[in-house]
Amino acid sequence: MRIDNLVIGFILLIFVFGGLNLYVASRLYCWLVLIVPVNVIVYIVVYTLLMLSVVFGEVPLPLPSSINKKLRWVGGYWMSVFFYLLAFFALADLLLLIGSATKLIPSDMYQDALLCSGALVVLLTAVVVAYGLHNAGQVRTVSYNIELDKGQPNEIGIVLIADLHLGDVNSEGRLEAVVREINSLAPDIVCIAGDIFNDDYYTMRNPQKATRLLRGIEATYGTYACLGNHDGGSTLPEMMEFLEQSGIILLNEEHVRISERLILIGRLNFSRTGKFGELKRGDFSEIISQADSTLPLVVMDHDSRHISEYNKEVSLVLSGHTHRGQVFPCNVLARLVFPFEYGHYQKGDNSPSAIVTQGVGTWMMPMRVGTKCEVARITLRCGT
Questions:
Q1: Residue 375 near residue 369 (C-beta atoms within 8 A)
Q2: Domain total for the chain?
């Protein structure tokens, strides 16, 4: 019997995650018992529940949605703590090993070094996580100026956001600040480059409030979106209904003419996270064959790895997906994974300009360290 590769990957991921948790749990316990009495049974039960909250926050149990939402909340915060406990304990143990091997730490002082390293790890974790949680709540603006030789001489203001991840921890809490920031820029067009949701429509805490806030976006020619890898699955119809009620025009392998000034195209993400029902990613040449090639062509395509599919006939590609790694040191690793991980790129003379935003939300861990939640303001100067 053939087992799907995704199932095998998920099982391996669970084993790896379990092993890393065993390391952190044992290391944290070894430090705690040096300073306070610890009931090992209680400790194991509490830690196991925290670990499982991460798993079942992402893979909901057949329980009432209110319980699953609480599990996601607990799991998101614990994953933030676990991530940096793991990183700092690993670094501390490496330094202890080097110190012990080189005799920089005498054997009779090893216990004291273990105690001090544990205290430092817990302190650093608390500081970094607190900073990361605070930083994720701050919405900032980054600006780009793009000059195009196509179209009549004019200037178009585009605001780009991506990766709202509505339904994830604190995602809806920052939505009001996001809308306020967008409106302060007085855009002509707002583009949402995918991952509006977080896999399941029903993970949202207050869809009615989110709808009201999104309807408050003020853009001269409207708000447009494409679907990302977390937008889909069994609740795709509810997601599409939500977008319609929110005044957001969804472009799925189709284009729209913006006031004789540009052509905006929305691509469907090639997704392995959520399925899109009957919707399929099509042949791009068929889409642009129906568009006015004398106007600038702007494409929303969620995953920046798709940028290489486009040539000079496209003026600008707008993407997200990468989160720029979201937390250190993942922001360093993101540069190795994604050819275009953040910012403004143009590969060559025959390639379009591309802007990859680091996103305005967070995924899994409700924090940002070394990155920021951003709104991208793009001034498009045509006919230059």
A1: no
A2: 2
Full domain range(s) for residue 167: 139-382
For residue 380, the 8-state DSSP code is E
Tokens of 288: 């642009």
User: Looking at residue 306, which CATH number applies to its domain?
Assistant: 3.60.21.10
Give the tokens for residue 237.
């119809």
**DSSP assignment of 312-369, as one string?**
TT--EEEEE-SGGGSBTTHHHHHHHH-SS-SEEE--STTS-EEEE---SS-SSSS--B
Length of the chain: 384
- Same domain as 260, residue 292: yes
* Secondary structure E strands in the chain: 139-147, 154-161, 189-193, 223-226, 248-250, 254-258, 262-266, 297-303, 316-320, 343-345, 353-356, 373-382
Instruction: Indicate yes or no: pTM above 0.85.
Output: yes
- Element (DSSP H or E) covering residue 129: helix 110-136
Contact 289, 255 (CB under 8 A): no
End residue of a domain, out of 135, 157, 181: 135
Average pLDDT of each block of 10 consecutive residues along the chain (384 residues)?
A: 60 86 94 90 95 81 77 92 97 92 82 90 97 96 91 89 94 94 97 94 93 97 95 91 97 91 90 69 85 89 89 93 95 88 88 94 95 96 79
Q: In three state form, how does the secondary structure of 133-165 look?
A: HHHHCCEEEEEEEEECCCCCCEEEEEEEECCCC
| Contact between 295 and 263 (Cβ < 8 Å) | yes
Together in a domain, 324 and 215: yes
User: Quick one: 298 and 212 in the same domain?
Assistant: yes
Residues 86 and 159 in one domain: no
